[in-house]
Specification:
Layout lengths: L3 H10 L8 H24 L8 H19 L3 H25 L4 H21 L1 H4 L17 E2 L4 E2 L2 H23 L2 H11 L1 H6 L4 H27 L4 H4 L1 H15 L6 H19 L7 H16 L3 H15 L11
Antiparallel strand pairs: 1-2
Helix pairs in contact: 2-7, 2-10, 2-12, 2-13, 3-4, 3-5, 3-10, 3-12, 4-10, 8-10, 12-13, 12-14, 12-15
Length: 332
């Protein structure tokens, strides 16, 4: 049983070479990058810190790298450090007052919701630098048949991006597992149940919450960097704002925020849902995807709060713990 995850990982690593073509490979890459982002959000969400502002952190990472590269020629390797640092600063500026003055629950969600929309409006307002609502494309460094540029962090071959995203996704799972096995998990669980009781036994409530928030924001900003560098196009509606924040929350809840692979299942589910809507309906109905996400979010919260993978795990545990059936009596 312990070798099963390694076998599955080895099979996943062979995915680019089974000859399915560029489109399935593109979908696999997008699933991995969104799995990274969703796992980053779940670090907060599983402890009751429901943030609708992660679209802001995603946009900070994506736009910082792109703007520094386009306007100043600064390599994305430096730009991603600056972008993650900016996201951390914003997370502290928003998180510390909220946690210090005990702004929790739906009030905290409203504060973060405003943050996501403010980030989108700032990007749109700086249209001369950011391209506004039309978005912006990073300057290409792949000229003259060049297939890659490490300095510009640009690769023409999707196979390279697949392994980059695969490594980042595995790193996100490692961070999730590390938090799950650390003392911070027990501190956050105590805080989510009762802050006063947690503080009475020596838990620094503000510092512990801020630590998880900063970690989640930094990882999400890095996910924005990955998304922008792979797509070579960033748009305020796809990397910031309320819509993308709602998508993140919905995907994690749908997949199961309390299970390590739950956000990954959520990424698979939402991407297939989005592709199904695009193929079946197209873009004729504006805002349909957001409406569907919102409606399904309500249904998942009511009927399947543990998510898809969480529900399957519960059924598996019940079946494994169920006593074996009594042997039938032999008839004499």
């Amino acid at each position: 049983m312990r070798t099963t995850p390694w076998i599955l990982l080895a099979l996943l690593a062979l995915f680019p070479w089974i000859g399915l073509g560029n489109y399935p490979l593109h979908l696999a890459i997008m699933i991995l990058v969104w799995s990274f982002v969703y796992t980053s959000w779940s670090l907060m969400g599983r402890f009751g810190l429901v943030s609708f502002g992660h679209g802001a952190f995603l946009g900070i990472g994506a736009y910082t790298v792109t703007m520094l590269w386009n306007h100043f020629g600064i390599t994305p390797w430096i730009g991603m450090v600056i972008g993650v640092a900016l996201a951390v600063v914003v997370a502290v500026l928003i998180g510390y007052p909220c946690f210090r003055f005990r702004i929790t629950g739906h009030y905290f969600a409203l504060v973060t919701l405003a943050l996501a929309e403010i980030a989108r409006l700032i990007i749109v307002a700086l249209r001369d630098q950011s391209g506004g609502s039309l978005g912006v494309t990073p300057n290409t460094a792949l000229a003259g048949g060049q297939s890659y540029s490490l300095y510009a962090l640009q690769f023409a071959r999707k196979e390279v991006w697949f392994y980059v995203m695969l490594g980042c996704w595995l790193a996100a799972l490692w961070v999730w597992r590390g938090v799950d096995r650390s003392m911070a998990r027990y501190a956050m669980e105590a805080i989510s149940q009762e802050e006063d009781a947690a503080a009475s036994v020596g838990v620094n409530v503000t510092r512990t919450k801020l630590m998880i928030t900063v970690l989640s924001a930094a990882m999400t900003a890095f996910g924005g960097v990955l998304y922008g560098q792979y797509q070579l196009y960033v748009n305020p509606d796809t990397v910031s704002g309320i819509g993308i924040s709602l998508q993140i929350v919905f995907a994690v809840i749908a997949g199961g925020m309390f299970v390590q692979l739950g956000p990954t299942v959520g990424a698979l589910f939402t991407l297939l849902l989005a592709e199904g809507l695009r193929v079946g309906i197209g873009h004729d109905v504006h805002g349909l995807d957001t409406f569907v996400y919102g409606a399904l979010l309500v249904l998942f919260i009511i009927y399947m709060p543990a998510g898809i993978l969480g529900k399957l795990s519960e059924r598996w545990r019940r079946r494994a713990s169920a006593p074996p059936p009594a042997p039938a009596q032999l008839r004499g």
